[in-house]
Amino acid sequence: MKRILFLGDIVGRAGREAVQERIGRIRKETGADLVIANGENAAGGAGITGEIARQLHEAGVDGITLGDHCWDQRGFDKAIDQLPFVCRPVNLLPGCPGAPRLILTHGDFRLAVLTVLGQQLIKIPTRPGFPMMEDLLEDLRGKAEAIFVEMHAETTSEKVAMGWYLDGRVAAVIGTHTHMPTADLRRLPRGTAYLSDAGMCGPYDSVLGREVAPILGRFLDGMPRRFTVAEDNVQLWGVLIDIEPGKRGCVAAETFREGID
């Protein structure tokens, strides 16, 4: 049996410092064999830097996934190819730098990790993810004992559809991007763990990780404001997935929450 811990979007300094400080203890307490985290909001709430990615990895995060903010930090497009533990979304346009997926190992167990960007309300140019999946799964045949798919999308419908599409063919389809944990974690009929959104690792006294006041002001009068990253009530949210190599889907899945403040 292998246990995978996936952490939702790490948001800002407060989120990344909480992960760095606590991931070692969390690994021991949960028995996680591998830890994956979405790091696309780790630098100032938008994007990630090479230095931050290395710090998270050194602290105990085995693999870091990204999303639609992957290129927001200047120079990261040059740094990503020097970070073998980081993968960018698999359906970015051809020619983008970075690995489209990861193969993480624990002993002789190999876990393939990939992120698919949704098409609806996502501004970064992408290729449709659904038509790519057959070739991706075929390419991974024999290269991994299990596959973890992160669906980084705005609309729940795309996430749910991907879960049903991949049921029984991957260990898990876990949603990210909207930063608020959902209550729909389940094992689909053929064994794949599904969750619409894992939540974020960041400040929950906020609006999706940003200070409340400027967001409310924007809704009230429409004037532009700087949306500062919040700091209070930091929590880590994610999902724990148990995988039996050689068996379809996963054995069990449960939500993970660590309160900081």
Summed up, what is this model?
The protein has 261 residues and is an alpha/beta fold.
Question: What features would you describe in this structure?
Answer:
With 261 residues, the chain is of the alpha/beta class. The protein has a single domain (2-204, 233-259), classed as Metallo-dependent phosphatases (Purple Acid Phosphatase, chain A, domain 2, 4-Layer Sandwich), CATH 3.60.21.10. 24% of the residues lie in helices and 27% in strands. Strands 1, 2, 3, 4, 5, 12, 13 and 14 form an eight-stranded mixed beta sheet that branches. A hairpin with a 5-residue loop joins strand 10 and strand 11 (193-195). The model has no long low-confidence stretch (mean pLDDT 94).
Largest sheet: 8 strands, mixed
Structural class estimated from helices and strands: alpha/beta
Q: What portion of the residues fall into strands of 2 or more residues? A: 25-35%
Task: Give the uncertain stretches in residue-range form.
Answer: none
- Give the overall form: globular
Note the quaternary state here.
single chain
Radius of gyration: 17 Å
Whole-number mean pLDDT: 94
Helix content: 10-25%
Helical segment tally? 6
Would you list the SSEs in sequence order as H and E? EEHEHEHEEEHEHEEEEHEE
Count the beta strands: 14
The CATH class is Alpha Beta
What name is given to the CATH topology? Answer: Purple Acid Phosphatase, chain A, domain 2
Tally of individual domains = 1
What CATH architecture do you see?
4-Layer Sandwich
Amino-to-carboxy terminus distance:
33 Å
